[in-house]
Each structure stands twice: as structure tokens, then as C-alpha cells.
Write a structure and sequence with these properties.
Structural class: mainly beta
Helix content: under 10%
Distance between the termini: 40 Å
Number of helices: 0
Radius of gyration: 14 Å
Low-confidence stretches: none
Length: about 120
């Protein structure tokens, strides 16, 4: 069984920084894209940043220049460095990974972490 375990959320003042980490464990053949999404109260879950296995990245316009996504393929891990945080970044952040459990899986399945709260005070 595959699990994604996140860590690093918390409360920070505007302008501060936080680093989120996520590690995938369990029966894993390969991991394609990994990413971070967030959901604020009353809003839909949205993409924050995504990274391919070979390191290509894309970011939501709202976080470009402030957030940096990275991954460690050997550890099946992905991180999100968040700088210059704003109150509007407050949300539950979810780790996501597209994972093949078996070599014969025709395509990867999406797995999600449990979410970690990020609160930015003004």
C-alpha cells in the first residue's frame, strides 16, 4: 500500500518562510510527476507547483518567484520551499504523486497525502 506523508506546515507571519516535505512509501515501482496542491476554506483545490521526474517544473502564477519545488528521486520525496509568504497563501497543502505500483500498470495512479495546514498571519 502506498502512502504519502507530509510534514512542515505551521503558523508563520507574513513575509516568513516554511518548507514542506513529502515522502512516498510502500510498494512503488516508479513515480512520474509529483506536486503540491492547496485548498483554502470555501475554495477549490488548486495546483501550487508540479515537478516531473526529470526536473521540469511549473508553478501557479500566484507563487512564481516565491516558491520552489524540488524532488529527490532516490528517496521518493518532494519538497516545497515557500518564501515571502502572504496571508492569501493560507490553506491546507496536499502532496500529490503519480505512481506505478507494478511494472505492468498501463499508467500511474494519483496518490494524495493527508494534508498539512499552512497559516500566514498578517
Amino acid at each position: 500500500q502506498v502512502q504519502l506523508v507530509e510534514s512542515g506546515g505551521g503558523l508563520v507571519q507574513a513575509g516568513g518562510s516554511l518548507r514542506l516535505s513529502c515522502a512516498a512509501s510502500g510498494s512503488i515501482f516508479s513515480i512520474n510527476d509529483m506536486g503540491w496542491y492547496r485548498q483554502a476554506p470555501g475554495k477549490q483545490r488548486e495546483l501550487v507547483a508540479r515537478i516531473t521526474r526529470d526536473g521540469s517544473v511549473n508553478y501557479a502564477d500566484s507563487v512564481k518567484g516565491r516558491f520552489t519545488i524540488s524532488r529527490d528521486n532516490a528517496k521518493n520525496a518532494v519538497s516545497l520551499q515557500m518564501n515571502s509568504l502572504k496571508p492569501e497563501d493560507t490553506a491546507v497543502y496536499y502532496c500529490n504523486a503519480a505512481i506505478r505500483v507494478n511494472w505492468f500498470d498501463p499508467q500511474p495512479n494519483d496518490y494524495w497525502g493527508q494534508g498539512t495546514q499552512v497559516t500566514v498571519s498578517s
